[in-house]
Design brief:
By secondary structure, this protein is α/β, with parallel strands linked by helices. Helices cover 39% and strands 20% of the residues. The longest helix is centred in the middle third of the chain and has 15 residues.
């Protein structure tokens, strides 16, 4: 999944990008509010991490502008400001949660994971469709209560489909949330990963192809319109 990081401290921005990348996220980073606004309006993100003390456009104004552009992805605010009113202002501007500096990276990852999960309508870190279960906090998948071995990219495809269950997800949308911007969109790797997931979850037939539109995962078993 793609995450937007807007942080003017270069050392912290680099640390955030590295830790998020290691956790399986695709990260776009901006050093100021103007660049953050461009990225946030130009591309689709699963969530954003935004510092309040930004140059050019401050964090509160940036959040407000993104919301006025109907960007609904969850926003986690980073703030070095300790006063409670600053936190309230961030939430009222449209943020979904805040984290005061200094912070521990595991807490940021946990809060971000929770925001993404809740925005998709899941209260629990464990996503389940029938006997297929995916633990987003531990990044583990089980089928019929038995561990299911997946590659990192297979896990990412499955996680994104399960977070968007019962909704058609296009190949371009999957590509946006799984790969860097310079990825070859004519590649057939998405079809390959979906095909592998189908084989590993047989005979459930949870993942369907909707011709010309994309993929959908659902507990309701229907025949695919086309193979991956």
């Amino acid at each position: 999944m793609r995450i937007l990081v807007v942080e003017d401290d270069s050392a912290l921005r680099q640390q955030l990008c590295q830790q998020l990348s290691r956790s399986g996220y695709i990260v776009d980073a901006a050093a100021d509010g103007a660049e953050g606004e461009y990225l946030g309006c130009e591309f689709e993100f699963a969530a954003a991490v935004i510092d309040l003390g930004l140059p050019k456009i401050d964090g509160l104004e940036l959040i407000g502008r993104l919301r006025r552009q109907h960007k609904t992805f969850p926003i986690l605010v980073l703030t070095a400001r300790g006063h409670w009113q600053d936190k309230v202002n961030g939430l009222e501007a449209g943020a979904d949660d805040y984290l005061a500096k200094p912070f521990e990276m595991p807490e940021l990852l946990a809060r971000l994971n929770a925001l993404i999960r809740r925005s998709a309508g899941f209260a629990s870190p464990v996503l389940a469709i029938g006997p297929l279960s995916l633990d987003t906090s531990r990044q583990q998948v089980t089928l019929n209560e038995q561990p299911l071995e997946l590659t990192a990219f297979e896990y990412r495809v499955l996680e994104y489909l399960m977070l968007n269950k019962d909704r058609i997800v296009s190949k371009n949308e999957l590509t946006d949330h799984l790969y860097a911007q310079d990825f070859d969109r004519d590649s057939n790797v998405i079809e390959v990963f979906v095909g592998r997931l189908r084989k590993k979850t047989e005979p459930l037939k949870l993942i369907r192809t909707v011709r010309g539109q994309g993929y959908v995962i659902s507990a309701i078993q229907r025949p695919s319109v086309a193979d991956a």
